[in-house]
Amino acid sequence: MREIFDKEIMERDALNRIKWDPNLNPEEFYICYRDGDEIKEVNFSEIGIEGDFIRIGSKQIPMHRIRLIKWKNEVVWNRRRHPL
Q1: Strands 29-35 and 38-43
Q2: Counted domains in the chain
Q3: Which of 3, 40, 47, 79 has its CA 20 to 30 A from that of 58?
Q4: Where are the alpha helices (DSSP H) in 21-62?
């Protein structure tokens, strides 16, 4: 699965792949993001994508806070691998 995301440099590209690729099940993906001093994890099905933000309930989180994207327990996208 990781090789699918090798060309996805930006968080937005990886999120759009999960959302639009008919071969992927969005419910199998987890987004790990920085919230203060913590790293929180949320299922992809619980977020909305709005411009440069993800929405979790009423909370907007800038995409640059996304650190990892996991498929089940495997890291498929890692911000450190794609520094900006």
Answers
A1: antiparallel
A2: 1
A3: 79
A4: none
- Per-residue pLDDT of 15-64, as tens digits, reads 999 999 999 999 999 999 999 999 999 999 999 999 999 999 999 999 99
C-beta neighbour count of 54 within 10 angstroms: 24
Question: What is the domain extent for residue 71?
Answer: 2-78
Does residue 84 belong to any structural domain of this protein?
A: no
Question: Tokens representing 46?
Answer: 């619980």
Residue 33 contacts residue 66 (beta carbons within 8 Å): yes
Q: What pTM was estimated for this model as a whole?
A: 0.85
Distance between CA atoms of residues 48 and 76, nearest Å: 20
